[in-house]
Amino acid sequence: MYYGISKKKAFTLIEIMIVIILLGILAAMLLPYFRSPAEDTTIASTKTDLQTVRFLLQLYRVQHSSIYPENMDLMTTTTSVDGKKGTGPDYPYGPYIQAVPINQYLNKNTVLTVPSMTDSNPKDSSTGWYYNPTTGAFRANVNMVVNGVAIGDL
User: Fold this and answer.
1) Which of 68, 44, 86, 51 is nearest to 131 (CA)?
2) What phi and psi values does residue 93 have, to the nearest 5 degrees?
3) What is the DSSP string of 30-46?
4) What is the CA radius of gyration of the chain?
5) Residue 112's beta-bridge partner residues?
6) Were 72 and a residue from 2, 38, 65, 111 both cysteine, which residue would form a disulfide, CB within 3.0 to 4.6 Å?
7) Kind and range of the H or E element at 62?
């Protein structure tokens, strides 16, 4: 009879550490791909918000003798043809939006009225949007470029 010591096959500590390190490297390489769909959704949402508000600003302009609203507050209330706020039959236009949409990047729906869009370069996160009442330009306060296009300029 043979009573030898049987050897169990098992992984050594070094082998386990190498596998864990390799899994960590693979996870680090794949992580950006898992964030991309969420970022794509945020970009699409911002683009949709910009298109909607810009369309409604054009509608306001058509209904108010080719004049844009002085500020975005006039988009959320009823107005007369000369752009005055009020209620009743003399104020047949609007409201165009219930509220300014939330900027998905900064989680803010505040609008800073600027004299020109050159003044609207994103400087901080105090406001979600920029609006120029002279030109009707409406931009997101986002200092980010994707595929060569600034998000705020979508």
Assistant:
1) 68
2) -105, 140
3) HHHHHHHHHHHHHHHHH
4) 28
5) 130
6) 111
7) helix 13-63
